[in-house]
Amino acid sequence: MGSFKGKHFQTALSAIEGMADAASMSAVGDIVAATVKSFGYNHICFLASTGIHQPFEDRVLLKVWPRPWDEQYSASNFYACDPVAPRIRRQPELFTWSDIRLDEISPKSRSVMEIASVDYGLKFGLCAPVHGMNGYQAGLSLAGYEVENTKDAHGAIELVTMYAFNRFATLRSHQRAKSIALTLREREVVSWVAAGKTAWDTSVILGISEDTVNKTVTAAMHKLNAHTRAQAVAEAIRQGLIAF
Amino acid sequence: MIEVIHSGNAGQFGDLLDKQFRLRHEVFVGERGWTALDVDGIYEKDQYDDDAAIYLVAANDAGAVAGGFRLYPTVLPHMLSEQFPQLLDGALIQRRDVLELTRFAMRKSERRSRHYFELLLAIQEYGLMEGLSGFTSVINPLRIPILQGFGLEIEPLGLPTMIDGEATIAVMFHVSEKCFARVRKGVAIEDSVFALPQTSRRIA
To answer: Which positions ≥6 away from A139 have C-beta within 8 Å?
Structure first.
């Protein structure tokens, strides 16, 4: 108490303030990573619930994993039996790996935990779920070798996780609002791409140059956060920007 | 609709106020087991239910109380200053333009109803109406993402702490036009949540 803020609360507050000013999702991720690293965690994964049936990679908000672990996790499809994943969906309160009872999880899940501990020396893990009005929203899963395992450190991580999720959600909705602002011409052009027309076809149909068609598609791809024309079409359909 | 009940108009709203104390008993004594606050098996009251308290009560047209919360001046001894000072990591906030929000209670069947959304919006609308900059409150930290999801701006005043087996945290709900607009959108309510134009009541 008193007017001096404790170290851990100060850590949480500076992270929260920093995230409020962060203009991109990766900037928010950097702050989360720096904060949890200061508590000794060097395996960091922040996963969103959106589209629970989507592949693991598509739901990652932030992932800082040493390469060997990252490679084995994906090659051996650890996500399918990671005991942390179902619990983070079910339980809104923060928990540690030591809260997971080995007799309550499947043999496959036990082997994931064993590999983490024996092969990678990960002795301690912490999970901070974020649950909103409609249940599970996201979860931060952390692990490390020498971590600060105190109530205050957990409290600071819990707060930073919640505020990070809120900031991620806000930035994502801004991004979406921005992407929805496709111009009429962009929607027309993407519609013709969806119909299988080439840039040349489209230029003839719309009576504009092929170069303009390509530039318009590129602009639409950028707004839709798409890397390929097919992705842009899929995203435009998903957002109801073009009919299909 | 939400009624604002205070010592100046309590006579007029005796029935609503009575139902509010009964609902609080249902929620805090019945559901959450805070037996120390049980007055007589019917009402739940504590030392802050005095002339300085202001109640925002959500009622339906038939006069049934769906939920509500209590406001109390932070310039007087209040719950955070007297009962939970250990939750504060930093100076106690005691300002005329900051009230303490306590006893947010919803009838079980109303927890996702329009009444709940009106009460969330009322935090902003009442705050702006009264020229307040915010409300301090002790809440379960798990509420933070839910309330943020509706657009509320929440500042932690300390770390989450377990008290008697319950997770708690002291927070400040900030009040601003920007936040008001965001919560309006978040709960999808366009109109004022108050029944009548409120006359400002200054905290003595």
So the answer is: A46, A47, A49, A84, A88, A89, A127, A128, A129, A130
A59 by Cβ neighbours in 10 Å (0-12 / 13-18 / 19+) ranks as middle
Q: By the CB < 8 Å criterion, does A5 face chain B?
A: yes
Run of H or E residues at B102: strand B98-106
User: Is A126 part of the contact surface with chain B (CB cutoff 8 Å)?
Assistant: no
- What are the tens digits of pLDDT across the range B38-77? 889 999 999 999 999 999 999 988 889 999 999 999 999 9
Q: Report d(CA A188, CA B164) in Å as an integer.
A: 62
| A155:B144 CB<8 A | no
Question: Do A159 and B156 lie within an 8 Å CB cutoff?
Answer: yes
Q: Which residues of A touch B90 (CB under 8 A)?
A: 2-5, 9
- Cβ separation of A93 and B167 shorter than 8 Å? yes
Residue A238 vs residue B111, higher pLDDT: B111
The neighbour count for residue B50, using CB atoms within 10 Å, is 11
C-beta neighbour count of B31 within 10 angstroms: 11
Count the residues in chain B: 204
